[in-house]
Amino acid sequence: MAPNPTLIVLIVIGLPVICGTLIVLTLLILNAMKKQKAGSPSPDETRIIQELHQALLRLEKRIDALETIYFENDRHQKGNPRNENLR
Please, which of 45, 49, 63, 81 could form a disulfide with 41 given CB 3.0 to 4.6 Å? Predict the structure, then answer.
């Protein structure tokens, strides 16, 4: 019985191509996982960033309040130029 030429072509060409493709895909997936792990912040870094964000939000509110006080004070002074003591 003569060997089937289709089976020989599959073994000689197809099997190495399939194995090579699987190896390349595995390496690509591993590299992507390494990059993802390296890019993600640690829990401590995440907590610090959240605390900084909250502190900046509070600071923004304080600045808004100071701007309001300043502009009201400035508007009041322009309305009463002789009154230097506003308290």
Answer: 45
C-alpha to C-alpha distance for 20 and 6, rounded to whole angstroms: 20
2-53: pLDDT as tens digits: 777 777 777 888 888 888 888 998 998 888 888 777 777 778 888 999 999 9
Cβ proximity of 56 and 49 under 8 Å: no
DSSP output for the chain: -PPPHHHHHIIIIIHHHHHHHHHHHHHHHHHHHHHHHHHSPPHHHHHHHHHHHHHHHHHHHHHHHHHHHHHHHHHHHHH-TT-----
Contact 41, 49 (CB under 8 A): yes
